[in-house]
Amino acid sequence: MNDTGQYLHQMRATAPLVHNITNYVAMNIMANVLLAAGASPAMVHAREEVAEFAGLSQALSVNIGTLDAPWAEAMEMAAAVMAGAGRPWVLDPVGVGATRYRQEVCARLLHLRPSVIRGNASEVLALAGLGAKGRGADAADPVEAAEAAARDLARATGGVVAVSGAVDYITDGTAAYRVANGHDLMPRVTALGCSLNGVIAAFLVGQAALPATVAAMAYYGLAGEIAAQGARGPGGFQSAFLDALYTITPEDLSAGARITQA
């Protein structure tokens, strides 16, 4: 991809309102991440208002981490609004292989055609109906093991599937890219993975899904690399990561993105 930074420039120029239905652990850090990146976050999950609020939003991210029946209904209501309006939404199928209930909820959400599905290799394998070694939100499967499943899932849903790992794999079922940006400290801070969903959603507004997703993941990983340069551990890394998201310029992203075509 050429000029990856243009996608960051467009996202910041738009400053999109991103509606997030995420887990309790992620709400605070996710809101801060989106603000630092240049978007406008909102955390709304009450059934009484979720559809109305989705109608006001430019993008949606859904994370099934702390799942229950009212939240599941709210997720479907918001996703239906976005799908009906032709607006982008991102699904993170956290721990989908762990319980039957999660599988049932994700099956219903898939029918609402997410623009992007982002998960680890075990989650993507489980979502595609294959066996996986993951337990809960953790992945025991390598990214490479989920690449074929990601392509099949992308073709089935008509969206983009992003498999997160040491080197991310992103595909629309035809074209595919690998993103090598990132740092080992990123998984040491809870909810940074969850927060990526909102950043992807923000990048999708007004931009083609595949290159926008690739750019968002490169931007996020590059921020991790920059934050790690001066961090002594996870605590310092978290604050440095927010600063990096805020200070990275489009030119920095174009220069620092490590993207290859798969």
Describe the structure.
- The protein is an alpha/beta fold.
- The protein has one domain: Ribokinase (UDP-N-acetylmuramoyl-L-alanine:D-glutamate ligase), CATH 3.40.1190.
- 49% of the residues lie in helices and 15% in strands.
- It has eleven helices and nine strands.
- It has a nine-stranded mixed sheet, sandwiched between helices.
- α1 runs antiparallel to α11 and α9 packs across α10.
- It is globular.
- It starts with a helix and ends with a strand.
- The relative contact order is 0.16.
- The mean pLDDT is 94.
Feature tags:
262 residues; nine-stranded mixed beta sheet; UDP-N-acetylmuramoyl-L-alanine:D-glutamate ligase
CATH topology: UDP-N-acetylmuramoyl-L-alanine:D-glutamate ligase
Q: Give the tally of β-strands.
A: 9
Order of helices and strands: HEHEHEHEHEHHEEEHHHHE
Counted by DSSP, the helix tally is 11
Question: Helices and strands in order, then pairings?
Answer:
Blueprint: H1 5-14, E1 17-21, H2 27-37, E2 40-43, H3 50-56, E3 59-63, H4 69-85, E4 89-92, H5 100-110, E5 116-120, H6 121-127, H7 147-157, E6 160-164, E7 168-171, E8 176-179, H8 192-204, H9 209-228, H10 234-247, H11 250-256, E9 259-261
Parallel strand pairs: 1-2, 1-3, 3-4, 4-5, 5-6
Antiparallel strand pairs: 6-7, 7-8, 8-9
